[in-house]
C-alpha cells in the first residue's frame, strides 16, 4: 500500500518502540523511559521536518491495559496508550525539559520509584559539592553544559584520558576488587546518574566541582569554595593516597591554579611586530597590505604573491590545484554530508566505457531538504 | 543477524541517535540498551522500506566520483536529476551510498 513519508516514519517509530519494549523490561527500565524515548524522537523529527506536525495514529481498537501482549502488536499499529502520545503530549513536553517528563506525565507512580533510583545519592562520592550540582542538574533538566562529549558510550568511555592522575590512583581503592574492568564497572553503574556525572566532570572541568579522592583538590576547593575545608577531601582519602597526594599536590598547585599569568604566546607583542595574517606570516608586511585590500576571492591575491616572493627559488607551484576539484570536493564533501544524500541498497552496478548504470532498492533520499523514499531506483551516470 | 547501519544516517536515524545520545548522557538509558534500540531501528527501517514503499525513481547525472569499498558503493553525482511519479528534483551535488542487497539475504 502506498503511504506517504510521514506515515512510514511513524510506522517505523511505532514498530521500533513496540519491539524494544521487551528489552526495556528485561533491563528493568521503566515504561516511562520508553515513552520519553518515543516522545523525544518524534519531537526531533518534527523539528527537522521529517514528519509533519500532526501525528495521526489509527484509533486504538482495544482499551489500553497494563500487560499488553507484544505478539498482538507486531502487525498492528501500536494501539497501546496512544492517546497519551498525541500532539498534546508533545506540546506538553516542549517547554519542560526531558528530565522532568517522568514527573509530569500521568503515569503510575510505581514507575517513579524506579526512576528515582538512578538519581539517588551514590556512595561513591559523598561530597556535598556533587550533591548540589546534581540537584541543580535535575532541576534544570538539561544535561550540564559540560557534558558534551558526542556519543562516548558507543565507544568505551576514555576514563583513562583523565588528566588527573591522582584521581585514577584514588579510584584504585574502589576498583581493587575489579582492577581489570573499570570501564565495565562504570557501564553497570551507569544508571546511577550521579556517578556518571562525576566521571564527566572529572574529564571536562578543572574547577572545584570534582569529588577528588586525593589531596590536590585541596588547592582548588580552598580557592573556590572557602567553606569546604580540606577535611572534606581528606575524609575520602585513604592512607595510601596521602603520600602520592602530597607529591601531586605540589605539582598540581602550579598546574591547576586557575590564575597563572602568561608571559608568552597569546598576549605578547609579537603579532604587532610582524603583522601576522593567518598563514602568510613568511611574507613581508608590504605584501600583507595587498592581501588585506584584496577581494575576498581566495585565488585573486595569490598570483601577485607568487611573482614577488619566488624570484630566487624554483617556483613551488603550490597553487596550481587550488581552485580545482580538489578544493571543491573537500568543501563539497562537507556540504554533502549535510545536504543531498541517498541511502539505499544496490542490486546491480555496471559500467560500459564511461556509462554507468545501477539498480538500487529500498532507499531514503534527502534532497532539497525533503525526504523521499523509494522501493526501486535506476540510475544512469556519465563519468 | 547483521543489520545495515546505513539508514542511521537518514533524518529519522539521526533523530533517533541524538535522542539516544541525550538519554545515555542523562543516565536514563544504558549504552547497551541504546545500541539494541538502534539495531531494532535498522531492522524496522529496512523492513518498512521493503513493504510499505512502492515508488520508483530514476536518476541521471554526471558521475564525479565512484568508490567501491567493503561492499559499499559510493557515488558522487553532479547536476543530478531525480524523477518519480510525482515530482522531479534537481541537485547540484549528491552523494549516493549503497550497500549490497545480497548481504542481507545470505
From TrEMBL, chain A:
* Chief place where the protein resides: nucleus
Where in or outside the cell it occurs: the entry states: Nucleus
Q: InterPro entries from the entry? A: TFIIA_asu/bsu, TFIIA_b-brl
Q: Where does the record locate the signal sequence feature?
A: none
Against PANTHER family, the record matches this protein to: TRANSCRIPTION INITIATION FACTOR IIA SUBUNIT 1 (PTHR12694:SF8)
Keyword list (alphabetical) reads: Nucleus, Transcription
Cytoplasm is among the record's keywords: no
Could you tell me what this protein is called? Transcription initiation factor IIA subunit 1-like isoform X1
Q: Superkingdom, according to UniProt?
A: Eukaryota
Similarity comment text for this entry: Belongs to the TFIIA subunit 1 family.
Task: Locate the compositionally biased regions of type Acidic residues.
Answer: 309-329
Give the UniProt record's GO annotations in the biological process aspect.
transcription initiation at RNA polymerase II promoter
One Pfam family here: TFIIA
Cellular compartments per GO CC: transcription factor TFIIA complex
Which parts of this chain are annotated as the region Disordered?
Answer: 194-213, 296-329
Kindly give the SUPFAM superfamilies that the UniProt entry links to this protein: Transcription factor IIA (TFIIA), alpha-helical domain, Transcription factor IIA (TFIIA), beta-barrel domain
UniProtKB/TrEMBL annotation, chain B:
What superkingdom heads the lineage?
Eukaryota
Keywords in alphabetical order: Initiation factor, Nucleus, Protein biosynthesis, Transcription, Transcription regulation
GO cellular component terms? transcription factor TFIIA complex
Segments forming domain Transcription initiation factor IIA gamma subunit N-terminal = 4-49
> What molecular function terms (GO) are annotated for this protein?
translation initiation factor activity
Q: Which residues form the Transcription initiation factor IIA gamma subunit C-terminal domain?
A: 60-101
Q: Where in the cell is it found?
A: Nucleus
One of the Pfam families matching this protein, by short name: TFIIA_gamma_N
Question: Signal peptide span per the entry?
Answer: none
Mark the transmembrane ranges: none
Against InterPro entries, the record matches this protein to: TFIIA_a-hlx, TFIIA_b-brl, TFIIA_gsu, TFIIA_gsu_C, TFIIA_gsu_N
Major localization listed first in the record, in broad terms = nucleus
For this entry, list what GO says about its biological process. transcription initiation at RNA polymerase II promoter
Per the record, the similarity remark reads: Belongs to the TFIIA subunit 2 family.
According to the record's subunit comment, the protein's assembly and interactions are: TFIIA is a heterodimer of the large unprocessed subunit 1 and a small subunit gamma. It was originally believed to be a heterotrimer of an alpha, a beta and a gamma subunit.
UniProt function note: TFIIA is a component of the transcription machinery of RNA polymerase II and plays an important role in transcriptional activation. TFIIA in a complex with TBP mediates transcriptional activity. Protein involved in the resistance to X.oryzae.
Name used for this protein in its record: Transcription initiation factor IIA subunit 2
Q: Which organism is it from?
A: Phoenix dactylifera (Date palm)
Amino acid at each position: 500500500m502506498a503511504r506517504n513519508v510521514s506515515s512510514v516514519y511513524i510506522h517505523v517509530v511505532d514498530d521500533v518502540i513496540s519491539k524494544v519494549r521487551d528489552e526495556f523490561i528485561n533491563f528493568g527500565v521503566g515504561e516511562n523511559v520508553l515513552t520519553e524515548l518515543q516522545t523525544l524522537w518524534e519531537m526531533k523529527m518534527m523539528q527537522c521536518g521529517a514528519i509533519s506536525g500532526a501525528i495521526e495514529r489509527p484509533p486504538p481498537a482495544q482499551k489500553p491495559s497494563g500487560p499488553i501482549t507484544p505478539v498482538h502488536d507486531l502487525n498492528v499499529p501500536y494501539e497501546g496508550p496512544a492517546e497519551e502520545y498525541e500532539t498534546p503530549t508533545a506540546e506538553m513536553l516542549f517547554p519542560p525539559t526531558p528530565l522532568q517528563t517522568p514527573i509530569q506525565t500521568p503515569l503510575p507512580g510505581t514507575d517513579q520509584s524506579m526512576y528515582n533510583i538512578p538519581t539517588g545519592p551514590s556512595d561513591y562520592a559523598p561530597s556535598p559539592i556533587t550533591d548540589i550540582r546534581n540537584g541543580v542538574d535535575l532541576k534544570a533538566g538539561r544535561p550540564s553544559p559540560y557534558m558534551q562529549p558526542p556519543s562516548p558510550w558507543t565507544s568505551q568511555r576514555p576514563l583513562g584520558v583523565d588528566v588527573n592522575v591522582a584521581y585514577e590512583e584514588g579510584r584504585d581503592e574502589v576498583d581493587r576488587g575489579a582492577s581489570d574492568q573499570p570501564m565495565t564497572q562504570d557501564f553497570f553503574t551507569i544508571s546511577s546518574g550521579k556517578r556518571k556525572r562525576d566521571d564527566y566532570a572529572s574529564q571536562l572541568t578543572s574547577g572545584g566541582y570534582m569529588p577528588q579522592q586525593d589531596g590536590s583538590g585541596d588547592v582548588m576547593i580552598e580557592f573556590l569554595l572557602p567553606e569546604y575545608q580540606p577535611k572534606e577531601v581528606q575524609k575520602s582519602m585513604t592512607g595510601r593516597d596521602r603520600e602520592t597526594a602530597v607529591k601531586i599536590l605540589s605539582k598540581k598547585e602550579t598546574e591547576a591554579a586557575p590564575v597563572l599569568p602568561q608571559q608568552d604566546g597569546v598576549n605578547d607583542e609579537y603579532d604587532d611586530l610582524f603583522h601576522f595574517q593567518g598563514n602568510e606570516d613568511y611574507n613581508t608586511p608590504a605584501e600583507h597590505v595587498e592581501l588585506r585590500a584584496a577581494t575576498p576571492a581566495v585565488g585573486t591575491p595569490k598570483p601577485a604573491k607568487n611573482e614577488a616572493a619566488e624570484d630566487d627559488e624554483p617556483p613551488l607551484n603550490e597553487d596550481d590545484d587550488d581552485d580545482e576539484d580538489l578544493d571543491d570536493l573537500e568543501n563539497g564533501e562537507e556540504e554533502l554530508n549535510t545536504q543531498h544524500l541517498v541511502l539505499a541498497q544496490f542490486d546491480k552496478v555496471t559500467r560500459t566505457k564511461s556509462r554507468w548504470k545501477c539498480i538500487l532498492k529500498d532507499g531514503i533520499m534527502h534532497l532539497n531538504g525533503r525526504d523521499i523514499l523509494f522501493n526501486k531506483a535506476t540510475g544512469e551516470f556519465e563519468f | 543477524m547483521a543489520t545495515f547501519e546505513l539508514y542511521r544516517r537518514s533524518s529519522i536515524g539521526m533523530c533517533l541517535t541524538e535522542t539516544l545520545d541525550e538519554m545515555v548522557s542523562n543516565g536514563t538509558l544504558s549504552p547497551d540498551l541504546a545500541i539494541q534500540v538502534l539495531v531494532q531501528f535498522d531492522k524496522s527501517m529496512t523492513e518498512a522500506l521493503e513493504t510499505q514503499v512502492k515508488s520508483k525513481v530514476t536518476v541521471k547525472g554526471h558521475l564525479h566520483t565512484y568508490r567501491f569499498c567493503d561492499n559499499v558503493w559510493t557515488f558522487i553525482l553532479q547536476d543530478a536529476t531525480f524523477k518519480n511519479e510525482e515530482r522531479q528534483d534537481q541537485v547540484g551535488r549528491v552523494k549516493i551510498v549503497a550497500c549490497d542487497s545480497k548481504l542481507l539475504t545470505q
